[in-house]
């Protein structure tokens, strides 16, 4: 269930209440006339089943409540109420499959912002991966994948494309480009420093590396795994169940490929650097393609269900 707290202009409160009544899966409606001071208006509270939440938010925005008032949404972890149970049963579909597009857009906007923290995380992840590549240590590679924050901007690109938000897509793409460029540059300097103190040498890069050579030798499976990871990643963001993010973090080789490119650059190994760049491009494009198609599929599915989320005019809400 979701809890909505709205500040509504007094002249639109009746329209908001009518919208709530017509939306299936709503309950626990409360109205406090004149309770809001900034902005001035009425305070309206209600609970709604997650699968009906996006339709209700869409209707509230059509009434201009987000512009002239306020809409706040919270997840309800526990609701001990027979009415809440009946509301969830009334709403078609499953809560775990429901997509809250406004929440998804806001989350990806935050995660795709080019910040110092993002750059540091990506640089540290790439340096960890560089150590893994040099030592042919798969554990370090997996750790670097888990630390890397690049999935946020990738999800931002997908969301921006599907929702028709070019600024979000452009900002996310910029975060990816600048982030990986900075991470590769820092890791190249890191490699030169480690070489200067005798911890890394060119022989490590040229030696057989059965555990990590895949990061610069792209093949069809590179793109296939990226497609699967992109699908799983977007499902984890749109679903109420987000545990799959851990699996996504260790399923793609964006950060390790960038690390191998940096090491190869520091030693002047152009073939390995080029192979790593191709691997990186394949993974990024595969994730974006799969993520975008996944979101498009959910969008079409829930658009088809939207008409089932409202009652005909004049139909009383379920008691």
TrEMBL record:
<feature type="transmembrane region" description="Helical">
    <location>
        <begin position="174"/>
        <end position="200"/>
    </location>
</feature>
<dbReference type="Pfam" id="PF04087">
    <property type="entry name" value="DUF389"/>
</dbReference>
<keyword id="KW-1133">Transmembrane helix</keyword>
<feature type="transmembrane region" description="Helical">
    <location>
        <begin position="116"/>
        <end position="135"/>
    </location>
</feature>
<keyword id="KW-0812">Transmembrane</keyword>
<dbReference type="InterPro" id="IPR005240">
    <property type="entry name" value="DUF389"/>
</dbReference>
<feature type="transmembrane region" description="Helical">
    <location>
        <begin position="220"/>
        <end position="237"/>
    </location>
</feature>
<keyword id="KW-0472">Membrane</keyword>
<protein>
    <submittedName>
        <fullName>DUF389 domain-containing protein</fullName>
    </submittedName>
</protein>
<feature type="transmembrane region" description="Helical">
    <location>
        <begin position="141"/>
        <end position="162"/>
    </location>
</feature>
<feature type="transmembrane region" description="Helical">
    <location>
        <begin position="280"/>
        <end position="301"/>
    </location>
</feature>
<feature type="transmembrane region" description="Helical">
    <location>
        <begin position="244"/>
        <end position="268"/>
    </location>
</feature>
